UniProtKB/TrEMBL annotation:
PROSITE patterns: EPSP_SYNTHASE_2. One of its GO terms (biological process) is chorismate biosynthetic process. Residues 20-145 form the Enolpyruvate transferase domain. One of its GO terms (molecular function) is 3-phosphoshikimate 1-carboxyvinyltransferase activity. It comes from freshwater metagenome. Pfam families: EPSP_synthase. This is Unannotated protein. SUPFAM superfamilies: EPT/RTPC-like.
Length: 154
């Protein structure tokens, strides 16, 4: 994705930057499927298409993660299509829809901690995105809700 990550300072601040902008990837995620929601969120913000492949087993997790990711990203104006085993992500600017009756969009987590993490990533870039039940992240990162609130300044 042509990005660079870093951890610095006493608070272990993390950063992700694109060298010349994040670019898409074509990758088999079968063996690291748990990373798919986070990678899909970053891919939706990239400048070129991505193909996340061989992840059909994610349809059997807390929710059908392929459908959930496509649904939530597309509601923000994204262009995600799914096959039986893959997600194809074509970059489009993500934003609140003109049809959104408020100044925010509730990113549905489907009570799935990985979906909450994906929503958090998108919410860092897309103004007005609010993650439904960020507390679900406690399943794998107990301190995430507090860290998230600190990072957002509230």
């Amino acid at each position: 994705m042509q990005g660079k990550s870093s951890v610095s300072g006493d608070n272990n601040a993390a950063g992700l930057t694109g060298l010349t902008g994040l670019t898409g990837i074509d990758v088999d995620l079968h063996d690291v499927g748990e990373l798919t929601p986070s990678i899909a969120a970053v891919a939706a913000l990239a400048s070129t298409p991505s193909a996340l492949r061989n992840i059909e087993h994610l349809r059997l997790h807390e929710t059908d993660r392929l459908s959930a990711l496509a649904n939530e990203i597309n509601k923000l104006g994204g262009d995600v299509t799914q096959t039986a085993s893959d997600l194809m992500i074509n970059p489009k600017p993500l934003k609140l829809s003109a049809a959104t009756p408020t100044d925010h969009y509730l990113f549905n987590t489907y009570e799935d901690h990985r979906m909450a993490t994906a929503g958090a990533i998108i919410g860092l870039v897309v103004p007005g995105v609010i993650v439904e039940n960020i507390e679900t992240t406690k399943k794998t990162l107990p301190d995430f809700p507090g860290l998230w609130r600190q990072m957002l300044g509230n």
